[in-house]
Design brief:
Shape: globular
Radius of gyration: 12 Å
Number of strands: 4
Oligomer: single chain
Strand content: 25-35%
Length: 87
């Protein structure tokens, strides 16, 4: 577990994580690229705050559910998704 400001901590992390949980603020495609780098193949990403209607969050959701890089399922509340990194 890492503690601190997300924007400060994220760039300091090395790849190889099995699990990441994002529940800070509106997700962006840039954060998803960072998670792709940090989470090992077959690792899990749990993304929250997917209800935001801005273009960045929509793009994040689209990338998660598009297939190819992630296998994603929405969790019951519709605000959260669980994704497995495929490649």
């Amino acid at each position: 577990m890492h503690q601190g400001d997300f924007a400060d901590v994220l760039p300091t992390l090395a790849p190889g994580y099995d699990l990441a949980f994002f529940d800070g603020f509106a997700p962006t495609p840039g954060y998803l690229r960072a998670f792709q780098r940090l989470i090992r193949p077959r690792g899990v990403l749990i993304s929250s705050n997917l209800h935001f209607r801005d273009a960045e969050t929509r793009a994040y959701r689209d990338l998660l559910f598009a297939g190819g890089a992630w296998l994603t399922a929405a969790i019951a509340d519709g605000d959260t998704a669980m994704s497995v990194r495929l490649r």
